[in-house]
Design a protein that fits this description.
alpha/beta, 19 strands, 17% strand
């Protein structure tokens, strides 16, 4: 319930046993905050919200669609949870209206070509320089259209049907590189299969049994489900951390320049695609080395300088979300950056002796095993086995991406392009 730093730098940590209502205080040299970012529900304040007579709940409280049987439901927000909840409720509700402010993010189907979509999270693709991949106002470049066409050669009937459904539902379509990923297409299925409706607007005012939207429409509803994310709560920490912003205040989203290794934050970095555990594992590993004094942190001025560069880059990369989602980061670049910091980045020259494993490192999904091949805490044989078991993209996609990597790598040698991330020059 409270962590207080004393003048000698030690931390007085008070915890409460809620079952016995008993409090206990202990002294620690350092603390690591791993309380997570998804445990304090955020529900926006809306004019007239106290007047609404129906059921209103946050997605974190959702357990089943049963309470929404036969009701008119408004679902606000998206993300994977929102998309899945929308599909579940659409099967039993009298009607379902789904609204988002700026669209559902970058919608990525859970499965593609009969495989989980995470298989496409490869070094070969995600390692392409973002300055090459991020197309602003220029339309989809030819190379990306070619990639989409090549991938479509492996489409299943389910893939084709989903492509048609996504084209028929009007929503703002983003590339994953510039927005957080919504790795669920179920809200599309809710519209296609069960008659749900989707629009991009926000709530202006709530009444007893209706909601007025910014687009001028009114929706009569019996229930509202808020898929509006979570707020961070550091109320147990000193005042300096109460309004902590990961991107603005923490070096590598982990250490505060003023406090050094006395306090660390682990598990809060949220990749736009990919998952939190691989990033959190690397973060925990370099944090452990720093606390054990086996990894030296930069001086505070240097930390501030690096934080400014990282912040400006992420603000450029995520123009729609950087203010709202402070923990948002690029999956590939964060993994590469932190693996170098830890000393476990990929030694491709060594892997050349085993082309099969090298191929899986380049064309297989980015999984933690890649970062256990070398460096502190490595398990080369175990990692090799894990990489062998992991799936990879189809051969024709490998050929295309390999050619693209070679072309960009060659251009980068002449200063005509940024180098691929984690390959060639890095």
């Amino acid at each position: 319930i409270e962590a207080k730093q004393e003048d000698d730098g030690k931390w007085m940590v008070t915890v409460r046993d809620n079952s016995a209502m008993d409090e206990h205080t202990s002294v620690f040299d350092k603390i690591i905050v791993c309380s997570g970012s998804n445990h304090v529900p955020h529900v926006p304040q809306v004019e007239g919200d106290h007047l609404f007579e129906g059921n209103s709940c946050h997605s974190s409280q959702y357990r089943s669609a049963k309470p929404f049987q036969g009701k008119k439901v408004l679902l606000v927000g998206m993300g994977e949870s929102g998309s899945d909840i929308a599909y579940s409720i659409s099967k039993v509700a009298k009607s379902l209206q789904i609204i988002t402010r700026k669209g559902p993010g970058a919608v990525i189907p859970r499965r593609k070509h009969g495989k989980v979509s995470d298989v496409d999270t490869t070094k070969a693709y995600h390692g392409l320089p973002k300055t090459f991949m991020k197309f602003e106002g220029l339309g989809i470049p030819l190379w990306h259209k070619l990639k989409i066409w090549i991938e479509s050669l492996n489409n299943t009937e389910e893939d084709d049907a989903l492509d048609v459904a996504m084209a028929n539902v009007k929503f703002t379509k983003y590339h994953w590189i510039s927005r957080y990923g919504t790795k669920s297409e179920n809200f599309i299925r809710a519209v296609k299969e069960h008659g749900a409706t989707y629009k991009e607007t926000n709530i202006l005012e709530m009444g007893a049994k209706s909601v007025k939207m910014a687009d001028g429409s009114t929706y009569e509803c019996d229930a509202i489900v808020w898929c509006s994310g979570f707020a961070t709560n550091f109320s147990f920490l000193p005042s300096e951390f109460r309004k902590l912003q990961y991107r603005n205040d923490l070096w590598k989203k982990t250490f505060h320049p003023t406090f050094g290794t006395s306090i660390a934050f682990v598990g809060f970095a949220r990749p736009n695609v990919g998952s939190i555990p691989p990033i959190a594992e690397l973060q925990a590993r370099f944090t452990a080395l720093a606390l054990a004094e086996r990894l030296s942190l930069p001086l505070s001025d240097e930390m501030e300088s690096v934080m400014k560069i990282d912040r400006e880059y992420e603000e450029w990369l995520f123009p729609w979300d950087y203010e709202r989602v402070q923990s948002l980061c690029s999956y590939m670049e964060t993994l590469m950056d932190w693996s170098r910091l830890l000393g476990c980045d990929i030694d491709l020259a060594r892997l050349v002796r085993n082309p099969s494993i090298a191929g899986r490192v380049i064309f297989g999904p980015l999984i933690p095993a890649q970062f256990r091949l070398f460096g502190p805490g490595s398990d080369f044989d175990g990692s090799m086995e894990a990489l062998t078991l992991a799936d990879s993209i189809p051969f024709v996609q490998k050929q295309f991406l390999f050619s693209l990597m070679l072309a960009i790598g060659t251009l980068s040698n002449f200063g005509l392009a940024d180098p691929p991330i984690g390959l060639f020059l890095s």
